[in-house]
Specification:
Layout: H1 6-26, H2 30-52, E1 71-72, E2 80-81, H3 87-104, H4 110-117, H5 138-161
Antiparallel strand pairs: 1-2
Helix pairs in contact: 1-2, 1-5, 2-3, 2-5, 3-4
Length: 165
Amino acid sequence: MPQTSREDHYARAALRHHSDAVYLHDDGRLPNADHHFGFAVECALKSLMLRYTLVSMEPLTPGGRPPSKPYIPRQAGKTKYIGHLPEAWSDAGDVISDASLLLHGRTGSALAAILTASEPFAAWDVHERYSDGSSIDEADVLARRAASERILGLHEQALMDGVLT
Protein backbone atom coordinates (compact mmCIF):
# COMPACT_ATOMS: atom_id res chain seq x y z
CA MET A 1 0.00 0.00 0.00
CA PRO A 2 1.56 3.34 -1.02
CA GLN A 3 2.16 5.88 1.72
CA THR A 4 0.11 9.03 1.60
CA SER A 5 2.14 12.23 1.74
CA ARG A 6 1.47 14.93 4.33
CA GLU A 7 0.33 17.29 1.59
CA ASP A 8 -2.19 14.65 0.45
CA HIS A 9 -3.47 14.34 4.02
CA TYR A 10 -3.93 18.12 4.17
CA ALA A 11 -5.67 18.11 0.76
CA ARG A 12 -8.15 15.43 1.83
CA ALA A 13 -8.71 17.08 5.20
CA ALA A 14 -9.50 20.37 3.41
CA LEU A 15 -12.22 18.68 1.35
CA ARG A 16 -13.61 16.85 4.37
CA HIS A 17 -13.80 20.00 6.50
CA HIS A 18 -15.33 22.00 3.65
CA SER A 19 -17.98 19.34 2.99
CA ASP A 20 -18.91 19.23 6.68
CA ALA A 21 -18.95 23.04 6.85
CA VAL A 22 -21.35 23.32 3.90
CA TYR A 23 -23.64 20.71 5.44
CA LEU A 24 -23.65 22.51 8.80
CA HIS A 25 -24.07 25.96 7.24
CA ASP A 26 -27.00 24.82 5.11
CA ASP A 27 -28.56 23.42 8.29
CA GLY A 28 -28.14 26.77 10.08
CA ARG A 29 -25.47 25.53 12.50
CA LEU A 30 -23.24 28.58 12.14
CA PRO A 31 -20.60 28.13 14.87
CA ASN A 32 -19.48 24.68 13.76
CA ALA A 33 -19.82 25.59 10.07
CA ASP A 34 -17.54 28.55 10.67
CA HIS A 35 -15.07 26.36 12.50
CA HIS A 36 -14.91 23.84 9.64
CA PHE A 37 -14.61 26.55 6.94
CA GLY A 38 -11.53 27.80 8.80
CA PHE A 39 -9.97 24.36 8.99
CA ALA A 40 -10.78 23.68 5.32
CA VAL A 41 -8.86 26.80 4.26
CA GLU A 42 -6.03 26.14 6.68
CA CYS A 43 -5.56 22.59 5.36
CA ALA A 44 -5.74 23.69 1.70
CA LEU A 45 -3.14 26.43 2.31
CA LYS A 46 -0.81 23.97 4.04
CA SER A 47 -1.25 21.49 1.19
CA LEU A 48 -0.33 24.19 -1.35
CA MET A 49 2.61 25.51 0.63
CA LEU A 50 4.02 21.98 1.03
CA ARG A 51 3.66 21.30 -2.71
CA TYR A 52 4.78 24.57 -4.27
CA THR A 53 7.02 26.42 -1.83
CA LEU A 54 9.96 25.75 0.47
CA VAL A 55 7.63 24.96 3.37
CA SER A 56 8.51 21.52 4.70
CA MET A 57 7.62 18.75 7.11
CA GLU A 58 10.95 16.99 6.81
CA PRO A 59 12.76 16.24 10.08
CA LEU A 60 14.78 19.22 11.26
CA THR A 61 17.73 17.00 12.11
CA PRO A 62 19.08 13.97 10.22
CA GLY A 63 17.27 10.88 11.52
CA GLY A 64 14.92 13.06 13.59
CA ARG A 65 11.16 12.77 13.76
CA PRO A 66 9.02 14.77 11.35
CA PRO A 67 7.46 17.83 12.98
CA SER A 68 3.73 17.88 13.74
CA LYS A 69 3.15 20.94 11.55
CA PRO A 70 4.72 22.53 8.47
CA TYR A 71 7.53 25.00 8.85
CA ILE A 72 9.42 27.58 6.85
CA PRO A 73 13.12 26.74 6.86
CA ARG A 74 15.25 29.63 8.01
CA GLN A 75 18.81 30.27 7.01
CA ALA A 76 19.47 32.05 10.27
CA GLY A 77 17.38 32.37 13.37
CA LYS A 78 14.43 30.40 14.59
CA THR A 79 12.36 28.06 12.42
CA LYS A 80 8.86 29.46 11.74
CA TYR A 81 6.05 26.94 12.09
CA ILE A 82 2.79 27.35 10.16
CA GLY A 83 -0.01 27.24 12.71
CA HIS A 84 -3.70 28.00 12.59
CA LEU A 85 -5.60 30.79 10.90
CA PRO A 86 -5.42 33.74 10.84
CA GLU A 87 -1.62 33.59 11.08
CA ALA A 88 -1.50 30.76 8.52
CA TRP A 89 -3.36 33.03 6.05
CA SER A 90 -0.75 35.76 6.40
CA ASP A 91 2.11 33.26 6.29
CA ALA A 92 0.62 31.65 3.18
CA GLY A 93 0.22 35.05 1.54
CA ASP A 94 3.85 35.86 2.16
CA VAL A 95 5.16 32.42 1.17
CA ILE A 96 2.96 32.01 -1.91
CA SER A 97 3.53 35.58 -3.06
CA ASP A 98 7.26 34.93 -2.94
CA ALA A 99 6.83 31.60 -4.73
CA SER A 100 4.47 33.06 -7.32
CA LEU A 101 7.06 35.65 -8.24
CA LEU A 102 9.46 32.81 -8.92
CA LEU A 103 6.90 30.74 -10.81
CA HIS A 104 4.94 33.34 -12.75
CA GLY A 105 6.95 36.54 -12.85
CA ARG A 106 5.25 39.86 -12.24
CA THR A 107 1.72 38.59 -12.66
CA GLY A 108 1.79 36.59 -9.46
CA SER A 109 -0.78 33.93 -8.76
CA ALA A 110 -4.53 34.10 -8.39
CA LEU A 111 -4.10 32.58 -4.97
CA ALA A 112 -1.63 35.26 -3.90
CA ALA A 113 -4.11 37.89 -5.09
CA ILE A 114 -6.89 36.41 -2.94
CA LEU A 115 -4.61 36.10 0.05
CA THR A 116 -3.45 39.70 -0.14
CA ALA A 117 -6.80 41.30 -1.15
CA SER A 118 -8.77 40.49 1.98
CA GLU A 119 -8.61 38.52 5.18
CA PRO A 120 -12.02 36.99 5.87
CA PHE A 121 -10.40 34.90 8.61
CA ALA A 122 -8.70 37.82 10.38
CA ALA A 123 -11.14 37.49 13.30
CA TRP A 124 -11.48 33.70 13.07
CA ASP A 125 -10.09 31.99 16.14
CA VAL A 126 -9.40 28.29 16.54
CA HIS A 127 -10.35 28.69 20.20
CA GLU A 128 -13.96 29.50 19.25
CA ARG A 129 -14.51 25.76 19.51
CA TYR A 130 -14.64 26.27 23.26
CA SER A 131 -17.10 29.18 23.12
CA ASP A 132 -20.90 29.23 23.21
CA GLY A 133 -20.89 30.35 19.56
CA SER A 134 -22.87 33.52 20.18
CA SER A 135 -20.18 35.70 18.56
CA ILE A 136 -20.52 33.95 15.17
CA ASP A 137 -22.88 35.70 12.75
CA GLU A 138 -24.27 34.82 9.33
CA ALA A 139 -22.36 37.54 7.45
CA ASP A 140 -19.00 36.29 8.75
CA VAL A 141 -19.85 32.69 7.91
CA LEU A 142 -20.99 33.68 4.40
CA ALA A 143 -17.73 35.55 3.79
CA ARG A 144 -15.69 32.63 5.08
CA ARG A 145 -17.70 30.16 3.01
CA ALA A 146 -17.04 32.21 -0.12
CA ALA A 147 -13.31 32.40 0.70
CA SER A 148 -13.22 28.68 1.39
CA GLU A 149 -14.85 27.93 -1.97
CA ARG A 150 -12.35 30.19 -3.80
CA ILE A 151 -9.31 28.73 -2.03
CA LEU A 152 -10.44 25.13 -2.46
CA GLY A 153 -11.21 25.80 -6.13
CA LEU A 154 -7.70 27.15 -6.68
CA HIS A 155 -6.30 24.24 -4.68
CA GLU A 156 -8.06 21.71 -6.91
CA GLN A 157 -6.95 23.58 -10.05
CA ALA A 158 -3.35 23.59 -8.81
CA LEU A 159 -3.50 19.84 -8.17
CA MET A 160 -4.81 19.24 -11.71
CA ASP A 161 -2.36 21.65 -13.40
CA GLY A 162 0.62 20.88 -11.20
CA VAL A 163 1.30 24.61 -10.66
CA LEU A 164 -0.11 27.56 -8.80
CA THR A 165 -1.88 29.84 -11.24
